[in-house]
Amino acid sequence: MVAFTRVPFVSGAGAEALAELRVGHVPAPTGDAPITLLARVPSDECGCPEELWRIEGFDLLFHFEADGRSEVFIFAGDWEQETTLEARSLDDLRAKAFQWFADIMDTADAN
Ligand SMILES: [Zn+2]
Known about the structure:
The protein is an alpha+beta fold. It has helices at about 10-20, 90-110, and strands at about 35-40, 50-55, 60-65, 70-75, 80-85. The protein has two domains: about 1-35, no CATH class; about 35-110, no CATH class. It has a five-stranded antiparallel β-sheet, covered by helices on one side. Zinc ion binds near residues 43 and 65. Zinc ion binds next to loops.
């Protein structure tokens, strides 16, 4: 088992879904979502699909380009990171952007 060390969060819909999925205790709705999709919109510059997520207080923005070479940003106040990721779709880019985010946070924890 891995110890649960995060702040608990359960949405109203989450409590309903857990009531269907769990055989044991179902937690009541509590807390603020640690990960939220803030926006899914066409870019204001070129119209490409963009998503903006807030993850544990960091903003993750990615922009899916037709050639598959897509820009990804993390913003946190004055601190910013940027990379280019190869992706075949917006869904693939989202998965890779979240992986890049986790890699960056692991590196930040190590320093
Ligand atoms: Zn574009």
